[in-house]
Amino acid sequence: MKKLFLKIREDKNFVFTLTAILCVVGWFLLVIHGNFSRSLQISLGLIFSIFYFLINSVWLAKILARLGFEKEFQFIFGLFLLLFLIAFGMAVPIVFYKITPIYLAFLLISLTIIISLSSRLKRKGEKEETEKELVLVENNEKIKIPKFCYLLFAICYLLLWFLLFRARTGADIRSPWLVIHPFYLYGWLFIIFVIGLLIFSKCRLKTFLFFIILTSLLLHSYLLVTYQTGFGGDKWRHLGAEQWLMDGHIYTPALFGEQISYKQLGPIKIPEVFIAGNKTSYANMWGMTIALSWLTKIDIFYIDLFLGLLLFSIFLPFLLLKIGSLFSKKKEFLYLLALLPFLFFPFQIYGSITVPQAFGFLPFLFSLIFILEYFMDKFSFRQLLKRLVFLIPFLYFNYVLYLIVFLEIFILVFLLKNFYEFKRNKTVWLALIFICFLALVFLIPLLDTNNQYSSFKKNLAPTDFKSTLINFPIRILTSDAIFPRLYRMEQDNWLYSQTGEYLSRATLLKALPWHLILTPIILFLIILGIINYRKLFQPKIGYLFILILIIFLLNQFIGSYFMEGNHIFSKRLVIPISFLMMIPLAWGIYCLTEYSKHIFSRKVVIFALIMIIGLTSTTVYASGPKFQTVSSDELAAAKYVWEKINSSEPVNKHCVLANTWPLLALEAASGKKIVTGGFPYYVEYRQPERVQLFDNMNTVPSVRYIEKAMEVTGASQCYFMTEGRWMLFNRKDQIINQLDSILGNHQNIGQVMIWLYQPNIVNSY
Fold first, then answer.
1. Residues with Cβ < 8 Å from 604, sequence gap 6 or more?
2. Mean pLDDT in residue range 415-430
């Protein structure tokens, strides 16, 4: 394999360049347009894709070596960058126009040519690059792990997978922990304990990363495996949009192919597409998902199901190690940093599903590396500007919040770097930093007011401010929700998902109020790490992260207590905040183990800290999610209704009166041809007409409600979907009989009942 990598790297006579291009041509002719069986198309697609990604990733690794990336990161970041370059290349036409398979073929060939030529280019006078390695500073005192621990790890690991598959269900459940066996959490505690021992042992980097990736795949699979239809609600809207784009349609607003819509931005009007954050923020995720589905011929549903888990499990540890190495080369610190995402619920949940908020965080971390390296004097400001020419458009077609955060950090880095470097005029630079700090504190809350998502509360009294100053730190200290629970749905939190109840039946969870015990300990270790930032090789990078963390916490402080509504940006800072807390937490744990040399037995302290890490990860794991999802019956019913509608005469107006979740499934099944059942929707997809009519039909059914639904949607017929659980319990049979009498006999799809109302026609399924 090493010889193959070297041959690809050199690519004499452009042999591998031609091979990569032929892979694209072969894919386009045989997979897209070939008349083969589905299984053969998938096999060919996978073969062509593997060769294409291998060749181009090796060249990108060579380019990254010139940019100063260590040997351990080059290939994995080459693969990472290739995936997101394809996503970026797909996102541009998705935002401005539309996409087709032939465009993807053109994009892949263009990327191959550009990457191949770029890997060969050398600046004048540049010598052949040397392989730079990540040199870790090891501690002489190491824990010896008995060999039987590895055997126990393997047995426990396989058993936990068995328990996940045993819990697999298509039923409507509030939480995966209601069906996962309680023993799973005890097994997870053991898994984390073994990983913790590896941190303080002689474990090599490659071996440790292997264990981390395996464990991460297990961690995030509790949603993927347990729910037959996948987890979450927004995923169905994304699937619908992706299918719509794959069918060759334009996703409005666009710049070409339809009438351009404009929006007022200050004194000027600009095309709406440039500031349509809900399109640019999603386009790269849609682009990668569609590209992988076209390349492999695997259904878009399964690509969406696995993509987020694989990206987070494979790439996040490497990104954290690279960023962490800028803080310190201490081996134990870096290993701790790779483990700590397992402690924070935002990383547990968002690393398990394919959503833009999580998907966009990974390219943000990759882009952040370049700003931090500039701050650490690894290259000049002029060289940074060259990188920004690519990075800013790269993040523009990414989740918009991370572009804002990236620019905030860039401004702070520029000001702080000048403050440290210029001996004169320090007062001026300090004043500029203070002004910038105040502006950034209010920036995110002000952005929350856009599109009427939030607004500042009126008639605020001084007593409100006083109570807020007391309440906010208490909520952080006890892991209570910082933001109110809107619409009876969970809101994001930095450590625990929620503290009101544990959803698993495991006795361990009921033994103590873990969130009240462990949250203060975690905060103490974070503060200890911050206090000891002065021991970093260059403490200024630690001070930068302290400043950013304070700004983000103040953003949430203002949003949660002085504003009302859905704080779409403030609350979604939860992933960056958790990331900013992981670094001082890892450093605090490392420093505490070093202090213990002089006071207690170091091994005793290490074992205690590993147990704290394990208990935190386990109890946080079981604290959520608590969320309704689409059941197997609802998905089957949605597909059934779409097949019926699609097989009838084409109409522009549709009417499907149902609960929210089957309508989300219908949006995906129809490829976004039926959105919210055909009913109008307002801010944040609110549909008051549909909700009220659905409730009425489940309590006092009447033809006038279904006719009103047809009037609201403009349709000539209407489907009504419901389940017995939405009806009055003591009148369920009576209500079903009434519905049969006024709408005709119903069709059962599992627990879902479906009626079709056609005026002047007696319906009978």
1. 596
2. 85
What is the residue whose two structure tokens read 């704290």?
612
- Measure the CA–CA gap between 109 and 118, rounded to whole angstroms: 14
Q: Per the structure block, which two tokens stand in for 587?
A: 């450093």
3-state secondary structure of 263: strand
Contacts 24+ apart (CB under 8 A), 161-168: 161/218, 161/221, 163/187, 164/218, 164/221, 164/222, 164/225, 164/226, 165/225, 167/225, 167/226, 168/225, 168/226, 168/227, 168/228
The neighbour count for residue 731, using CB atoms within 10 Å, is 14
In tens, the pLDDT along 338-348 reads 999 999 999 99
Which amino acid type is present at position 326?
L
**303 forms bridges with which residues in the sheet?**
none
Per-residue pLDDT reduced to its tens digit, 36-73 = 999 999 999 999 999 999 999 999 999 999 998 999 99
Calpha distance 553→570 (Å, rounded): 9
Task: Give the closest residue to 662 by CA, choosing from 684, 683, 690, 688.
Answer: 690
Helix (H, G, I), strand (E, B) or coil at 664: helix
DSSP assignment of 16-67: HHHHHHHHHHHIIIIIIS----HHHHHHHHHHHHHHHHHHHHHHHHHHHHHT
Distances (CA, A) of 226 to 374, 631, 744: 44, 12, 37
Query: Rounded to the nearest 10 degrees, what angle do helices 688-699 and 732-743 cross at?
Result: 110
Position 81, amino acid: L
What's the rounded Cα separation, in Å, for the pair 167 and 176? 8
User: pLDDT-derived band of residue 649, with 50, 70 and 90 as boundaries?
Assistant: low
Q: Which helix (H) or strand (E) holds 440?
A: helix 426-448
List residues bridging with 681 in a β-sheet: none
Question: Quick one: which of 666, 641, 646 has its CA closest to 756?
Answer: 641
Within 8 A by CB and 6+ apart from 578, the residues are 344, 346, 347, 494, 495
User: How many Å apart are CA 624 and CA 451, to the nearest integer?
Assistant: 30
CA-CA distance, 175 to 306, in Å (whole number)?
A: 20
Residue 334, both tokens:
């870096």
Half-sphere exposure of 477 (CA within 13 A, CB side): 6
Burial class (CB in 10 A: 0-12, 13-18, 19+), 696: middle
Q: How far is CA 142 from CA 207, 541, 594, 602, in A?
A: 16, 29, 12, 10
Query: Residue 124 burial (CB < 10 Å; 0-12/13-18/19+)?
Result: exposed
Whether the bond between 317 and the residue before it is cis, its omega within 30 degrees of 0, is: no
User: Do the beta carbons of residue 641 and residue 720 sit within 8 Å?
Assistant: no
What is the spatial distance between Cα 103 and Cα 3, in angstroms, rounded to a whole number?
34
Q: Place 764 in a pLDDT band, splitting at 50, 70 and 90.
A: very low
CA separation for the pair 448, 454 (Å, rounded): 6
Helix ranges, 297-344 (H): 300-327, 331-339
List, for residues 145-177, the tens digit of each pLDDT value: 988 999 999 999 999 999 999 999 999 888 999
Is residue 543 within 8 Å of 419, Cβ to Cβ? no
Helical pair 514-531 and 574-599, crossing angle rounded to 10 deg: 80
Work out whether strand 718-723 and strand 656-657 pair parallel, antiparallel, or are unpaired.
Answer: parallel
b/e per residue, 459-488, with b = 16+ CB within 10 A? eeeeeeeeebeeebeebbeebbbbbeeeee
Distance separating alpha carbons of residues 323 and 265, to the nearest angstrom: 37
What is the C-alpha separation between 134 and 120, in angstroms, rounded?
24
Counting Cα atoms < 13 Å in the Cβ hemisphere of 88 gives: 15
